[in-house]
Write a structure and sequence with these properties.
about 400 residues; alpha+beta; Cytochrome Bc1 Complex, Chain A, domain 1; globular
C-alpha cells in the first residue's frame, strides 16, 4: 500500500507507511536544527536532543528507557543542520507505547537542574572527542569555510563556550518556540491499523498548540568560501577535505549531482578510489559525499595520507574533476553507477526504520510525499549530459575550499 499523509487540526503532519513487517517504527521529525540558532544559542538544538531523554513529570529517565528497551525495542535521536529527529523501533504490537513515550518526551521534558549540569558536561566531552579526530576536524573546518558568516558553517553541537551560558530556562523557552505542530512530522512505518494509529497520534499530540514561526539562517552567496584552512594537530597522517558550495535539494540537477558523486567517490569502483588508491597508492581511503540543504549544498572529498603526498593527491583529484567536466561519462560507467545507486537505495529501504527515515526526511525537504519510485525514476532518468552539467555547475573554482589537518 502507498504511503499517505494526514494533517491534524493543529497542523501536525502524520505520514503513514504501511508494509509487511514484524516491527514498527515511529519517528518525530522537527524542522529545527543548528542553522535555526543564533550565535548565542549555538548547539542548543543538539543539547535539547540530549535532555529530552532525561525525564518528564510522569517518567524518570529510566522509565523512558524501559518503555522502549523493556519491550525489545531501541530508540535514539539525532540533530542536523535543519532538523531534529526522535525515533523508536519496536515489535509491532507496541506502537501505542512508542507514540505515548516519544510524545511525552516531546511535549513534557522537565529538564531537571542536576541532569542539565551533568549532560552539559557530557555534550562538552562529545565536542572534545570529535576535536581529537582529525578527519572530523577537517570536515567541520571545511563546512565552516564553505559557509562563512552563516549558521550552516557552525558545528551542530555548538562550542563549550556557547553551551556554558545556557540555563534550563533557555532550553525550555527554545522548545516552546521551536517544537511547534506546524514544524513537526510524525512517521509510522510497519504493520498497523491506520485508523487506530491516527487516533493515537491525535490523542497524544493533537492537543499541542503553538503559534509563531522561525526561519533558517540564510546563506550569503555573495560572500565567497574561504579558500583554505589549516589546523595543526599531533597526527601521523595528514587529513584533507576538499569541497565546493553548491545548489540546494530542490534544484533539478540534484539527481545528476548524486550520480556525479557516485562516479567520483562512492565505493571502491569509483574513479577517485581507483586512481588515488589503487593506481597511485596515495591514500588508504578516499571518498566523496554530496550533501543537500534546503537552499544550498556541499560536495566534498576526504582522504588521509602522508604529508609528502598532499600536493600530488590534490592534483590527482583535480584531474578527475576536470575529466568529469570535460568529457561525458561513458554509457557502461553511467549505467553501472545508476544500478549501484538504485540497488543501494532498494536494499537500504527494506527495513521499517529506513522507510521511516526516508519519508520523514523527504517530507521535511519537499513538504510533500515523495515515493521511493520517484527517487528511483529520478536516478534512472539521468543522462551523461546531465552528469556533465552537474559537474560544471558544482566544480567551480570560486566555490571551492580546502581544509587540511596536519602537523604544524
Amino acid at each position: 500500500m502507498p504511503a499517505r499523509l494526514v494533517v491534524l487540526k493543529n497542523g501536525l503532519k502524520v505520514v503513514l507507511v504501511p508494509c509487511e513487517a514484524e516491527s514498527i517504527a515511529f519517528g518525530l521529525f522537527i524542522a529545527s536544527g543548528s542553522r535555526h540558532e543564533s550565535a548565542a544559542d549555538a548547539g542548543i538544538s543538539h543539547f535539547i536532543e540530549h535532555m529530552l531523554f532525561k525525564g518528564t513529570p510522569s517518567r524518570r529517565a529510566v522509565d523512558i528507557t524501559r518503555a522502549i528497551e523493556g519491550r525489545g525495542g531501541n530508540f535514539n535521536a539525532f540533530t542536523s543542520e535543519e532538523s531534529t529527529c526522535y525515533y523508536a523501533h519496536l515489535p509491532q504490537e507496541y506502537l501505542a507505547d512508542a507514540i505515548e513515550t516519544l510524545s511525552d518526551m516531546y511535549l513534557n521534558a522537565s529538564i531537571p537542574d542536576d541532569d542539565f549540569v551533568r549532560e552539559k558536561q557530557v555534550v562538552i566531552e562529545e565536542i572534545r572527542m570529535y576535536s581529537d579526530e582529525p578527519d572530523s576536524v577537517a570536515a567541520e573546518n571545511l563546512q565552516r569555510a564553505l559557509f562563512p558568516k552563516c549558521a550552516l558553517g557552525a558545528p551542530v553541537a555548538g562550542t563549550p563556550e556557547s553551551l556554558a551560558a545556557m540555563q534550563p530556562s533557555t532550553l525550555r523557552r527554545y522548545i516552546r518556540s521551536h517544537y511547534l505542530p506546524s514544524k513537526t512530522i510524525a512517521v509510522i512505518a510497519g504493520s498497523f491499523d491506520e485508523s487506530a494509529a491516527i487516533a493515537l497520534v491525535e490523542l497524544y499530540l493533537g492537543r499541542r498548540r503553538g503559534r509563531g514561526d522561525f526561519e533558517a539562517d540564510g546563506v550569503d552567496f555573495s560572500t565567497p568560501p574561504v579558500a583554505e584552512t589549516f589546523a595543526a594537530k599531533d597526527v601521523n597522517q595528514t587529513q584533507i577535505a576538499l569541497g565546493y558550495r553548491t545548489f540546494g535539494i530542490r534544484n533539478p540537477l540534484k539527481y545528476a549531482a548524486t550520480v556525479m558523486d557516485a562516479v567520483l567517490g562512492r565505493g571502491m569502483s569509483s574513479r577517485l578510489f581507483q586512481e588515488v588508491r589503487e593506481r597511485r597508492g596515495l591514500s588508504y581511503d578516499i571518498s566523496s559525499r554530496m550533501q543537500f540543504f534546503s537552499d544550498s549544498g556541499m560536495f566534498a572529498v576526504a582522504a588521509g595520507l602522508d604529508a609528502s603526498k598532499k600536493q600530488t593527491t590534490i592534483k590527482t583529484i583535480d584531474r578527475e574533476f576536470a575529466r568529469i567536466c570535460d568529457k561525458k561519462v561513458g554509457t557502461a560507467e553511467l549505467n553501472r553507477t545508476k544500478e549501484y545507486l538504485v540497488g543501494n537505495f532498494r536494499l537500504g529501504h527494506e527495513s521499517v526504520k529506513s522507510k521511516m527515515f526516508f519519508y520523514g526526511s523527504t517530507m521535511l525537504s519537499f513538504g510533500r510525499l515523495v515515493s521511493p519510485a520517484e527517487q528511483v525514476a529520478g536516478i534512472a532518468a539521468v543522462t551523461a549530459a546531465d552528469v556533465q552539467a552537474a559537474a560544471r555547475a558544482i566544480l567551480r573554482p570560486e566555490n571551492r575550499s580546502l581544509s587540511v589537518v596536519a602537523r604544524s
